[in-house]
């Protein structure tokens, strides 16, 4: 029994000696056999206080979105615009003698900033119309430090989108995603230049889809997100966890000017169609019939004796417009266009805007509770001026 005890003691002593030697010379052999957290750590022997530090080769966890950010960030640019502004000219300024002593009136410049997304290797950049609409000069700064002057290809105030172009070689372009496959709760990242501090990435989720009736744009179908969007983010990218573009950040709901967790982005489906039309023709061509629509309220439904509240009341008809020539009259209730039901005025605007100008469309209307079909030769929607509003802010 004594021999067995002496053999055990000698074995333990030798084992501890080997462990001490390995721990001193090859500590990674020991930490490499521990759990996941310890496996990515190493002892910092140069520090006066021994500490474990993460290995530089440690892989990110499942909750990291750095690959998505790294993929999309090079395609998101900062946009700086300048606008010349003159003070009211004094009558004495027309006197050469006065100008000789006091100098000519100097032009003051106003500066603003926003963001944009490179969508083509040819240098086409998407941004918001309100970022560039009053600019005299537009400068684009890429994430790699390059800068270039941009020219406006075209804009669409009714969706608040614009396309500008730069002439630089080897520009990185973002990959377009599938916003129609997005669902509430999906993780998204917002990339832009908030408050001019530099390119910034924020994270959130898709809070809602198909937001409209907000009074921001004429045509609305927003993705709502709680990813922080602030002034300067306008025109920046909303991306999925793979780095694909889901939308263009355009506005926030705010009473203070800062993010309250309610931001809105124009979905890539709308962005793509508007962009292609602008690049091809310099503008967006939409259908138009020349009517003034009005939503059906419960009171109006009762006064018209309507059994259902869907559709839109034609409150006015433009003289000699497409609808007037076809025989549509004020008081008619439009319930369908080419067989597609119309829910309200917003729905009617979207449906008619998709019609091809120069072609006939069949309108289903109720007149004195009698349903009838009227063929209307669709016209081209006139360009509508965009109302001025604070950058990124809905009040």
What brief labels describe this structure?
395 residues, alpha+beta, Thrombin, subunit H, 4 domains, six-stranded antiparallel barrel, 10 helices, 24 strands, 33% strand, elongated, disordered C terminus, protease, repeat, signal
Structure explained in plain terms:
- The chain has ten helices and 24 strands.
- With 395 residues, it is α+β, with helices and mostly antiparallel strands.
- It folds into four domains: 35 residues, no CATH class; 98 residues, Thrombin, subunit H (Beta Barrel), CATH 2.40.10; 107 residues, Beta Barrel (Thrombin, subunit H); 88 residues, PDZ domain (Pdz3 Domain, Roll), CATH 2.30.42.
- The strands form five sheets. It has a seven-stranded antiparallel beta sheet with strand order 7-6-3-4-5-9-8. Strands 10-11-12-15-14-13 form a six-stranded antiparallel β-barrel. Strands 17, 18, 19, 20, 21 and 22 form a six-stranded antiparallel beta sheet that branches.
- Strand 6 and strand 7 form a beta hairpin.
- The longest helix has 24 residues.
- The protein starts with a helix and ends with a strand.
- The C terminus is likely disordered.
């Amino acid at each position: 029994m004594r021999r067995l005890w002496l053999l055990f003691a000698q074995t333990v002593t030798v084992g501890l000696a080997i462990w001490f030697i390995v721990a001193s010379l090859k500590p990674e052999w020991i930490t490499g056999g521990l759990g996941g957290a310890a496996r990515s750590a190493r002892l910092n022997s140069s520090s006066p206080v021994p500490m474990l530090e993460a290995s530089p080769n440690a892989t990110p966890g499942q909750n990291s979105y750095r690959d998505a950010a790294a993929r999309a960030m090079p395609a998101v640019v900062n946009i700086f615009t300048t606008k010349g502004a003159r003070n009211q000219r004094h009558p004495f300024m027309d006197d050469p003698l006065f100008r000789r002593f006091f100098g000519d009136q100097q032009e003051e410049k106003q500066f603003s900033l926003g963001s944009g997304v490179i969508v083509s290797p040819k240098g086409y950049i998407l941004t918001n119309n309100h970022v560039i609409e009053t600019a005299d000069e537009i400068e684009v700064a890429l994430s790699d430090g390059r800068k270039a002057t941009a020219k406006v290809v075209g804009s669409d105030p009714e969706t608040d989108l614009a396309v500008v172009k730069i002439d630089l070689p080897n520009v990185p372009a973002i990959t377009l995603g599938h916003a129609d496959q997005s669902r509430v709760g999906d993780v998204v990242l917002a990339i832009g230049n908030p408050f001019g501090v530099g390119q910034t990435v924020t994270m959130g989720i898709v809070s809602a889809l198909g937001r409209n009736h907000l009074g921001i744009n004429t045509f609305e179908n927003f993705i709502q997100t709680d990813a922080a969007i602030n002034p300067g983010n306008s025109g920046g990218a909303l991306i999925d966890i793979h780095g694909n573009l889901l939308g263009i950040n355009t506005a926030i709901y705010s009473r203070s000017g800062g993010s309250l967790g309610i931001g809105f982005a124009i979905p890539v489906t709308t962005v793509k169609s508007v962009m292609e039309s602008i690049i091809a023709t310099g503008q967006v061509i939409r259908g138009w019939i020349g009517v003034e629509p009005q939503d059906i309220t419960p009171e109006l439904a009762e006064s018209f004796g309507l059994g259902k509240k869907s559709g839109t009341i034609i409150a006015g008809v433009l003289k000699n417009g497409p609808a007037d020539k076809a025989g549509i009259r004020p008081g008619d209730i439009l319930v369908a266009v080419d067989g597609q039901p119309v829910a309200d005025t917003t729905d009617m605007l979207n449906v008619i805007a998709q019609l091809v100008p120069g072609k006939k469309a069949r309108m289903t209307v109720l007149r004195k509770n009698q349903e009838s079909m009227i063929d209307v030769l669709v016209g081209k929607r006139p360009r509508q001026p965009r109302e001025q509003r604070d950058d990124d802010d809905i009040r």
